[in-house]
Predict the 3D structure of the following.
Amino acid sequence: MTDDLSFILEEGKESMTKAINHLEAELVKIRAGKANPTMLDGIFVDYYGNTTPINQVGNISAMDARTISIQPWEKNMLQPIERAIIAANIGINPQNDGNIIRLFLPPLTEERRREMVKRSNAEGEKAKVAVRSIRREAIEQIKKLEKEGLSEDESQDAETEIQEITDKFISLVEKHLTAKEKEIMSV
């Protein structure tokens, strides 16, 4: 196998791994009944005119299985944090006691659990599309090499290998989705 083909395959694997890592990060944000500080990742607060991640303006911790507490490092950040959480529309109303913000996660109804499963499946579908797109790009690069003089057999072998890699990553996406669905649906 030529260096160019090896490079294409390695680049494809690397990109597919990034797609899986992104999926994992998105699935962590989908709440499965337990309080998890990472649920607040992606929420940004206006901090003296700069948009700042919420975890950089205060200490976020899970007090128990249903409660997240946010202890801002500056008292005047209570209102902006509260507004940012409300604006993020994560389905939780913040409770501000003047020192700390508490997020009480309501118990999940069957309907809400099904919504979350749909949301995680949508994230999984995005990951599959990304993986397939990476495969398509790799095959296009292989075809280009074939036009530049790569033998047909090597081209076919490389395409077969990229398809095997794609299948492996698609099944990995399925495993993540199955695990997340099980986590969400368990009461």
Observations:
- Residues 110-147 form the longest helix (38 residues).
- The chain has two domains: 3-29+109-185, 37-104.
- The longest strand covers residues 58-64.
- The chain has a mean pLDDT of 86.
